[in-house]
Each structure stands twice: as structure tokens, then as C-alpha cells.
Amino acid sequence: MSLTIADVLALPGLESMRLRAGTAGLENGVRWPYVAENSGIAEWVLGGELVFVTGINHPRDEGNLMQLLEEACERQVAGLVILTGPAYIQAIPQRLLEAAEAAGMPLIEQPYSLKMVLVTQAIGSALIQSEQLGRSRDDVLERLLTGDYQSLDLLLHRGGQLGLSLAGHWQVVQLQLEGSELLFAQGDAAAVEVQLARQHDAINRRLRQVSAGLPVLGRAGQWTLLLPASDAVAALVNRQHLANWLNPLNLRLAPLKLFIGLSAAAHPPARLAQAQDEARQALAAARRFSERAGLCVYDELGVLKLLSGVRDRALLDQFLHERLGPLLRHDAQHGPNLMPTLEAWFHENGNLVAAAQRLAVHRNTLTHRVQRIEALCGLTLDNSYDRLDIGIALMIWRLSA
Q: Which CATH code is given to the segment(s) 3-123?
């Protein structure tokens, strides 16, 4: 649970602090207070700070204040606090207020008569309390999702005391951000770390907005949250909402990519561990099957539900190698060729022209490859039973890729 700008403004003793612009950022999470002593802040903040701007150590004319706002937006700080009074910054320029409002950056006015030590002490204490409460709330949700409890009633009672409203039916959502290795290969490691931190913070903020006031569990580019879903209709609305957010987001994130898996609907608190497992299976399918566009719901898995239910991984591997072992060995020795061909052929439902186009090869080349596949495997693609076996083996291969 994080402390927001709105929470800071509501703290006892800080009533004289006024929000002057940037109402759209009231829910920005505050990581820590930071007093700006230099002409700029870009080198000194990491994102999420509530930055206090005085004129004590550096003159703050309109141009400098506009520069600070630009850097605050660039570094994704939580908000700016301008200390005003007769001695240093007499008033906040109108142009700064308009720019902050347009950027959605909270801009707060604090009179110099309100001592800074009282402000930072109030915020620091609130941050500690918020962190402790957040850890307790996270612990309740993690126990529900793992089934790690002796008494569900006691755990739900504890959640109620912490402000967690867990009654009802839910859908578990799991998200995973991938592709960071591509970023590190392209740029300076320190700059990439900053970029990744910004992306994580942006995703966290969005997820908190849709999480119905419940904690968003997350670390290292992986997140879990609950969405209300009393029936299949509500689950469909959740799916569409996430898809509408995910598709344009992944265009902006490239080469990073976010994947989402959702459980089935209508899980009461007693079945959240099962829902967690369903969401994990759906996430695996979203990551391995590109045709799902990065998002999958457990109800869409079809036969993959059966494959995911096989706990003996060796049994699946045995089936894969019995059916497609010669192709796997061929591609391991000569490079990926026959397996991608077989996959394209299946994806296009046996349409040689479409499969050739998908692989960017001539149709005759594809025909020769298909003949080679049948010869190596001893299977016939025109035989319905052989095609069923091959299709299942391909799914196992994709899940283990």
C-alpha cells in the first residue's frame, strides 16, 4: 500500500499545503520527500519523490521553475511542492500552473511559515505506517493466493481489519514483462535500469487504478492482482479492458513486451489458490503462443488445460519425442527448419500457399519440407489421428520452448 499525493495533503498538520494544479496526479505514489537544492533535479531523483522547491540556495525565477517541472515530468516524480513567502519565491507563476495542470503533475503550494521539519516528519512517519500496513495487506493476499492458511475465516477477518474487502467472487490476473535483455544489449546499463524502473512504475500505477482497492503484488517485472468477476460476462469485460490497454502499451514498450494471463471467473476467496494456478497456465499460453497477442484467459486454453494438468513432465516430453523427435534432432543439427514449417502448416490449417507466405518461402520448398517431415516421423498429415497427435505434440513443444 503506497502513500499518495492525496494522502499527503490529508495528513494532520499539513492543512496549509494547497494543491494548485495537476489534479490528475493525486493518486501518484510518494516514495520519499526530497528537497531540491540545485538548479535542476534530473540527476538527483529516481522517480516517485515528492520534490520540495525553495529559493534558499538557488534563485527560482519562472524559467528555472519551468525547467524543474519539465525534469519532474521526465523523471516521473510524484509531485512538486513550491515554498512561497515574502523572502524567496513570492508567488507561483501562472504559466507554471497551467503547464503543471496540462502535464498532470501535482503542484502544491506550501507557505514558508509551515516548518519543513514538520512536513518531512509527517510524511516520513506516514510512509513508514503505510509500508507496514501494505506489508500486512500483501501478506493476507499472498496467503489466500497460495492457500497458506489454517483458517480462512480468521484470515478474512484479519483482512477486514486491514481494510481489505475480499467478499465476493474474483478473477486472478498475472502479468509478466519480458525483453529486458534486449534493452541491456542496446544501451548503457545504468540508463536501462532507469528506463525499466520507469516502465515498472507506470505499469504499477495503472494496475493500482483497476485493482478495486486491493494490493497489487509484484516484483522484478511480475505482477498479480484480483479483479471482481461474479460471472463470465464480468470476466469478458475484464478481458476486453486489459486488451484495450495492452495492445497500444506493447507498441510503446518495444522491445519490451507485457504478457497477461487471467483465471476463469467467479472464484470465492476459498478458491483463489486454484485461480492463481489457472492464471499461471493462461500466462504461459500468452507467452508461448504469439497468435494470442500477449493475453489469454484460462477458459480459452482448450486442450492446453489437459496438458497443464499433467504433473509428470517426463510423460509430456516422452510423447513429444515419440511423435516429433526426428524433427527436433534434425533442427538441432541443421538449424530451425522443419519444426517451424510444421507449425506454420498447422497454423494455416494445411493451406500450403498461406503457410509458404507465412514462412516467406516458395510453395515448392514448403511441399518438399512437408514430405521430409512425413518421411522422418513416419506420420501422414492427411490422417486425422496423426494430425491430432502432431497438434498435441506441437502444443507441448511450444509450452516448453
A: 3.40.1390.20
